[in-house]
Amino acid sequence: PCAWFFLLKGSFFSPRLHRMFLVALSFAYFAKALSGSYMKSTITQLERRFDIPSYLIGVIDGSFEIGNLLVIAFVSYFGAKLHRPKIIAVGCVLMSIGTFIIALPHFIIGRYEFETSVRWVVNSTLNPSPCRPDSLANLTEDGTLPQVPASGCEGESNLSMWIYVLLGNVLRGIGETPVQPLGISYIDDFATEENAALYVGCVQTISVVGPVFGYLLGSLCAKIYVDIGFVKMETITITPSDSRWVGAWWLGYLIAGVITLLSAIPFWFLPRSLPVSRPEVPEKCTPEQTSFIKGSPLLKHKYSADEHTSFIEMAKDFIPTLRTLLAHPVYLVYLCVTIIQLNSLIGMVTYKPKYIEQHFRQSASKANFLMGVINIPAVALGMFSGGLLMKRLKLNIMGAAKFAFGTSLIGYILSLFFFAMSCENAKVAGVTLSYDNIEKISYDKHPLFTDCNSKCVCSSSDWDPVCGENGITYVSPCLAGCTTSAGSGKNTVFSNCSCVGVAGNYTASTGHCPQKDDCDRMFPYFLALSVITSFIISLGGTPGYMLLIRCIKPQLKSLALGFHALATRTLAGIPAPIYFGAIIDTTCLKWGQKRCGGIGACRIYNTTAYRLIAYLGLTLSLRTISFIICIPGFILLSRQLKEEERSAIHGALRNGGTELEVLRKEELVISNSDQPHHPSENSTDRQTRL
């Protein structure tokens, strides 16, 4: 009873500081998750604003992990021996500064200009003709309009503005480094074992709630035009569903920077370590019981952060400690499995809003809204439920591993149904179908120029889509053969379009043609299956994370968490967005053009190849490999647990044998000194002692 009094009272020692740190860490997780998810919600906006392909967006997204890579090993090892809350506070400040730097290019570069033949004309019925029957002398050898650099390009800086976004994201990565390893190890050091899983589950859940607000913020900003407040909105001739639309991407970064800066404040007021419980021992406790309590393994496994060690001593101990960690077979298999699965997960999450935009023809705002309202809450609920189930079921290491594997396997099987949810590509003349056969979609290379627009001098690089009365989208009014136009802005109507109808008196309007097919009916099923799979897979998140913490020795915990984060960021966080983006770029059918020349952002993709190869095929292939590696992982984990159990039994037997030998010697001494006239009493006493 005295032992339990000490331990239970110690677990609630200084509860106010425990709660304060838990709330502060949860808010820091929320802030970093919000800014991180907002970055992913703006990838299409950044592509269009800076006219860059998807693989460069992958480089920008991976630069966050590069920032982590620079300092995470040292922060995890040395930070665990220093003032952890203040190091986390410094990290939050750096994250905030990096977020502000990302928004900086908007205030440096000029207004956004996009390709269009539509003009805003006030009080005028005379509009220039899209089809210009200029002299043939103005044509190039291949029959296209020569490319003339835009005015002002002579003074254009060679340094692309997206470099600032990359550098800001690197600084965000450096600032985020101490939050996870130092925060989680701080909780696990000063919380009871039974509550540690629940606390970690709560923090991880809050970190998943952050992306809800991040994607909702992305949805809101995507609706607002990029140069809001600097241009008249009635002069903007495109809508948010247009592939040239750029939202106010910079606004969300300013908001996220302020929130991250606020999250740093509480950590400045927290102590170096929460006090290890040393309450007064009740009077009933004997000296032996008191000695047992003070030597309790529950207290010994806690890391005492108050032990001051010199920097040189810590540096000398770093390499041997790292070697010991990497010699752990279960830890190595766990690393391989999580690296491969995170490659799949990061690639999928990074480009999922883009997949929804391209495959299901939704606007960026709606795609981000659906991610924030439907997908992310399912993940948050799954992670919290996983932590709760682990505590309720009292899962050990093997139980947690089986639980995480089972949920991941079920989610994998359900994900196979995504292959059946296909949508036909948009019908674009000269891109997905030929001018001669407008009924059948084909991904063969089609010519943009044909007899119906041969009298027009058109640019093949422009992307200014118009919708013909026949339901076919044309790359530009000029390539549709339109000779006249009426109205202005979004209400412009092109007429006498020779490619739309044989008689040449058919009209076309601005923008893509709305596609009414099975895709609209398929989209709700896609969302429902996406929610179910996200929930099931995330159920194993917390048990899998606790497996990482519990499969190693307590003194290696901080280094193991830090090195795990280092490896996953190096081999998953950095390369996954880049090679996913590069493969997605190979499915592009029509590239835009930069204002001063050169290839810009992709305007339309081969959605079939995007779905089967670049998105679903790649993600599920990686997860298949991870399941194969799990087989030797279970074998090694089972061996480790058996060895630990065998060592514990041998240790108990050795301790028990030593105590028994002492008792026998004591019995021998007593029996020699006993009087012969008390045999029964001596026998009973010996039995009691034994």
Which labels suit this protein?
transport, transmembrane helix, glycoprotein, six-stranded mixed beta sheet, 21 helices, elongated, 690 residues, mainly alpha, sodium-independent organic anion transmembrane transporter activity, 8 strands, disordered N terminus
In brief, what are we looking at here?
With 690 residues, the protein is mainly alpha-helical. It is 59% helix and 4% strand. It has 21 helices and 8 strands.
Account of the protein in words:
- It is a single chain.
- Helix content is 59%, strand content 4%.
- With 690 residues, the chain is mainly alpha-helical.
- Helix 19 (575-585) packs antiparallel against helix 20.
- Nearest-angstrom radius of gyration? 33 Å
What coarse outline follows from CA principal-axis ratios? Answer: elongated
Main sheet characteristics: 6 strands, mixed
Low-confidence parts lasting 5 or more residues at pLDDT below 50?
Answer: 1-13, 135-145, 277-307
- How would you spell out the order of helices and strands? HHHHHHHHHHHHHHHEEEEEEHHHHEEHH
Q: How many extended strands?
A: 8
In the sheet with the most strands, the strands line up as: 1-3-2-6-5-4
Average of per-residue pLDDT values: 77
Strand content: under 5%
InterPro entries: Kazal_dom (IPR002350), Kazal_dom_sf (IPR036058), MFS_dom (IPR020846), MFS_trans_sf (IPR036259), OATP (IPR004156)
Domain Major facilitator superfamily (MFS) profile: 21-626
Organism: Astatotilapia calliptera (Eastern happy)
Protein name: Solute carrier organic anion transporter family member
